[in-house]
Each structure stands twice: as C-alpha cells, then as structure tokens.
Amino acid sequence: MINFNEKKGFICDMDGVIYHGNKILPSVADFIGWLQRTGKEFLFLTNNSGSTPKELQQKLARMGLDVPEKHFYTSALATAAFLKEQSPGCSVYAIGEAGLFNALYDAGITMNDVNPDYVVMGEGKSYSLDSLTKATNLVLKGARLIGANSDVSGPIENGITPACRALVAPIEMATGTQAYFCGKPNPLMMRTGLKLLGCHSGEAVMVGDRMDTDVISGLESGMSTVLVLSGVSTMETLKTYAYRPTVVLDGVGDIVRMAEATV
What we know:
The chain is an alpha/beta fold.
C-alpha cells in the first residue's frame, strides 16, 4: 500500500485518468482539490502530443477545473527537448497537431519535407496516405524515425482511437526501420517530470490507466505506482503483465479517500 499523505509529488496521466474525451471522470475535482489543498507538487505528464500545455489547461478549465499551465508536460515537449539535445538546429518532417509543431518550433527546429534530419510522428488528423508515403520515402532516404510516444491506442468517449505507436507502425514495416519513442515509458520523460516537481523518485507517485506506459515508467523510475481502472487497463489485462502496480484503484477519487482515512 501507499501512504499518500507522506508523498511529496504526484505525476498523473490525463486520458483515462482525468477525463475521457471531453467528459471529466468521477471524483477528479476532489482529487485535484486535495492536491492543491495539501500542498502536493503535481504534474500532468501526458503522452498526448497534439495539444499544447495551454490548450490542456483550457480544456480542464472548460470542465470546471482550475489548473495552472505550469502543471502540464507533454510527449511533444519531451520529443522537442530530445531533438534539441541530440541535434541542435536540426530539421524535421512532422506529422501531428499544434502541440507537436509548437514544441518543435520553440526548440529551434525547422520544418523540411525534402531532406530532413528526422521524421517525427505524433497523433493527428493530418495523418493520411499521402503524408505516410512521404514519411516512408524520407526515412528510406536517410531521415531518422522518431515517435512522440509509444501508445498503441487511447480512450475516447465511445471506445478507443489508434495512437502514435499504431500510426508509426506502417512506416516501420515499409522501411524496416525502428522508431525511437520519446514519451512514456521513456525514462528521459520521467526524469524530466521528477525534475519539474523537485522530487526524488521515492517521494513521488505515478498515477495512470495503462500498464504498458504509466505503470512501467513509474516502476522503472523507482516510484510508487497507482493503476486506475477508469481508462484502458482492466483487471483482466493486468494478468497479462509480469510486473504489478503498487496499488490498483477504481479512480483517482480513491486516492483522496485513502489519504483522508489515514490522517
């Protein structure tokens, strides 16, 4: 079990933990209120590469949740930081949404659809056979393949939607090239999250709805882990993994109830 009152920082996924699509999940307002009221450091560390931190802040505001922009960090930001570190001033051919493009531009990375250093894949409606074909041929010409995150699918209000890993797969298969993924469970993103919180791993909790990104990233970073059953994973899917979260809860509201019960 976890004594949540003793933990200094909380890193939380968003899709399937805080909301589904445009619908807030039960007891989320209580959870965020508890984090703020008790002075916890917290960060929404999301593999969603399509939205900027400002857009995510505004999305929660429309749901009645007041969370400052500084509490959001995305796989798009992690991807841009990785490229800036690896190859300052590089050029990319990118497929994705505003969150990815803004992060790349802010990192001094330019767009190039002729001879880019990298092909960068995120999620987005701009994904098409034409963009996929261009990306495939650019990789064959020598561009290195980067994925913003390794999520295969993501929860929506009426089911799931293919996510970045599924969208990158055709390029990998057509070129024989394996992509490098910058989002969770990449430890680079987790170390950044802990640094932003000002926490050591033993002082922090990772909360998510996915065994294959959230729980494994927290576990391998030395954090306590909470799997919530409000998103993708179920008790049945839990059985298919060799590792286990520290605790399994129905949703983030249970964190508040457990914390208040141990005061």
